[in-house]
Amino acid sequence: MDASLAAPLTEEQQEIRRTLRDLLAERAGPQENRAATATPQGYDPDLWARMSGTLGVAGLALPEEYGGVGCGPAELALACEEAGRALAPSPLLATSVLAAPLLAALGTPEQRAALLPRLADGSLTCALAVPGGSLALALGLTGDNTAEGWSGGGRAGGVQARAVDGGWRLYGEAAQVLDGHSAGLLLVAAHAGGFARSRTLLFLVRAGAPEADGLVRTRQTTLDSTRTQATVQFRDTEAELLGEEPADVLGALAVTGRDAAVMLAAEAVGSAREALDRTVAHVGAREQFGRPVGSFQAVKHRLADLYVQVEAAHSLTSCAAREPGPGPDSGPLALAHALEALRATAGESIQLHGGIGFTWEHEAHLFFKRAASDELLFGPVRRLRARAAERTGLFGEVAA
């Protein structure tokens, strides 16, 4: 089911899709993914090295001057779609989609030169640590990230930063940090300046370095085992300010969020397509009352409805990825449609597979867990749509 209402792929994009799909088919099947998530890292380091070093996936959207490929969001979205199709556990989302754009936008020339080439070649992974379990809000997807005290409010809770002897120290906790237990570099959102001059800044913490004393990372049990998460505690931990003050940190987070929404939507579309393809193959082979289950009209109608829903989400995602300078709402709206399509497709996949779809041995339930987990992390769908309506002034004044 590769038919698409979106613009045709270029030769370069077709090559990206072909090579990545072949690699993931070889190294990221259901059994391989289960084995990878059971490792201390939560993913297969060798597969990530091949994705990054051989195929250049980690640096697809990074400038060539920093060792990247210099492609645009359309190519990165294509890579995310293939990763979503395979449900491949990897640092792609945390490192390349969430952290790398912030480092490129806010880092000093020295920080960019030191860190971005290592992100591009896959030798360094990074995690964005946002306190309060409010990643969607911090990225401006479900609300105005300038109006909420999501990083602690400058009073208590969250992560607090204080200047000490020309440097910075962090104290506090962040939960639900994607790849937080294994990333070599943490990008931490923290409040600085006390309550009267409270402001949110981003800090670099190099995990494993001697100066990271007081850093405690604990891997969490997650609904979707391919999305590893951790609780990260900072106990007077030394940190480095990202960039220089003053910097529009909240604005950079919002821009990153809008672009990340496109990549997450592409992942969800890839997962939905794969779940639908597997379901079509199953009902075509399984017989009941002497005929294939897929030949019954009621089943055909259900699959046709899912196909339309998935293709509509794919078209919205492709358009959002190809727009020069995506608008503030195209990404989140595409994400809302894609998450809804994945949830519907994964649910119907379990139903049409019958009892086996609920078992641990079958992969149908893995797509449902991805749908539920992503909506918990980056949604829910109704709030993504509500925020887009606010920003466009659909029901009144245009929101900030």
TrEMBL record:
Q: Does the keyword Oxidoreductase apply?
A: yes
Keyword DNA-binding, does the record have it?
no
Limits of the Acyl-CoA dehydrogenase/oxidase N-terminal domain: 10-122
Keywords (A to Z) from UniProt: FAD, Flavoprotein, Oxidoreductase
Task: Report the top EC class in one word.
Answer: oxidoreductase
Give the Pfam families listed for this entry. Answer: Acyl-CoA_dh_1, Acyl-CoA_dh_N
| Gene Ontology MF: a single term | oxidoreductase activity
Its Enzyme Commission number(s) read 1.-.-.-
| Domain Acyl-CoA dehydrogenase/oxidase C-terminal, first and last residues per copy | 262-391
Question: Where are the coiled-coil regions?
Answer: none
The protein's required cofactors: FAD
Give the SUPFAM superfamilies listed for this entry: Acyl-CoA dehydrogenase C-terminal domain-like, Acyl-CoA dehydrogenase NM domain-like
Task: Extract the InterPro entries matched here.
Answer: Acyl-CoA_Oxase/DH_mid-dom_sf, AcylCo_DH-like_C, AcylCo_DH/oxidase_C, AcylCoA_DH/ox_N, AcylCoA_DH/ox_N_sf, AcylCoA_DH/oxidase_NM_dom_sf
Identify its protein family: Belongs to the acyl-CoA dehydrogenase family.
Entry protein name = Acyl-CoA dehydrogenase family protein
